[in-house]
Amino acid sequence: MKLDEVIARAAMTIRSEVAPAVMGSYQRTQAYMAAVILEKVARQLLLQTEHQRAETDEMAALWVDLELLTTPGSRLRRAVYASRSLGANAALSELLKAALSSDEPERDAVLQRTRRMMRAQLDRQLAYSE
Predict the structure, then answer these.
(1) Under a CB-based contact definition with an 8 Å cutoff, are residues 75 and 102 in contact?
(2) Which of 1, 44, 70, 118 shows its CA 20 to 30 Å from the CA of 64?
(3) Rounded distance, CA 120 to CA 82, Å?
C-alpha cells in the first residue's frame, strides 16, 4: 500500500471511528481537524509526482517563451539567464522583480507570461484543498 493510501485510511478511521467516540467537544473537534489535515497530506502526496512533472515542463516552456519575448542583450534577457539556475519560486520572484523595474518594451509580455506560470503553480497547490 502506498503512503498516501495509508494516510488517507488513517484519516478515514479518525473521522469515522475515533472522533465520534471522543467525549469532550474540544477534543472531538481536534480529532476531526486531525482527520482533515491527514486528508490534505494524503492528497498532496498523491499529486506530488504529477505536480513536479508539470512544474518541470512548465518551467522549461517558460524559459523558451521568455527567451523569445526578450531582446538579446537587454536587461530582461540577462535576468532570464540569471534566474534559470534558481528554483522555480525564486526564479519567478526574480523575474517579476526584474520585469516590474524595467522600462523595456517587452516588460508587459514578460510579466504576463510569468504571471501565467505563477497561476499554474497556484492551481496545483489548490488541488490539495479540494
Answers:
(1) yes
(2) 44
(3) 22
The reported pTM is: 0.72
Overall domain count for the chain: 1
DSSP secondary structure, 54-102, as one string: HHHHHHHHHHHHHHHHSPTTSHHHHHHHHHTTS-HHHHHHHHHHHHHT-
The three cell numbers locating residue 105? 518594451
Angle between the 25-69 and 75-83 helix axes, to the nearest 10 degrees?
Answer: 130
C-alpha–C-alpha distance, residues 71 and 123, integer Å: 30
Tell me if 111 sits within 8 A of 100, measured CB to CB.
Answer: yes
With the CA atoms of 60, 110, 93 and 88 taken in that order, what torsion angle do they form, in degrees rounded to the nearest 10? -10
d(CA 68, CA 83): 16
pLDDT 10s digits, 74-116: 999 999 999 888 888 898 999 999 999 998 899 999 999 999 9
- Structural domain span for residue 64: 3-129
